User: What shape does this take?
Amino acid sequence: MRPQCASLLGGFSVAIIYRYLDIGLIYRWNFGDRGPASPLSTPDTPARSRATTHTLSDGTVFEQLKYGWYTLWSFCHVNTPYEVKNVPRFSRYDPTYVPSGHRFVLKQISTAAACYVFLDLLGQERPP
Assistant: This one.
C-alpha cells in the first residue's frame, strides 16, 4: 500500500505545482481582482492607482485563505465568470437543472460501484 500512497502524493504534488504555475505566475490570479489580474493599463482604461489596488485587496485572512483554497482546487471554475468552456451540465434537456446533494452523491456512489464490479468481473477472466 505504501508505493500507491507515495505515487498518489507525488501526482498531487506535481498537479499543485502546475496549478500554481498556471494561476499564480502565468495568469496572476489574486484576491483583489477575484480572478486573473487585469492589465494595469489598456488603451481604453487608465492605470489604477496604488490606493485603489490596496483597497481592492483588503479582506480578512480567513477570506483570503478561503479564496486561495477554492482557486487552487477549482480546476474548471464552475459557475464563475472564468468557467472553462464545455463544462457538462447535469441534464442535456434542462441546462439549469442541478440535482440535490443527496441525489448527486447517490448517483456518484452507484457509478463507482458499477465500475468496481465491472472491473472486478474483468479481473476474474482467465489470462489469454
About this structure: The beta strands are 29-30, 35-36.
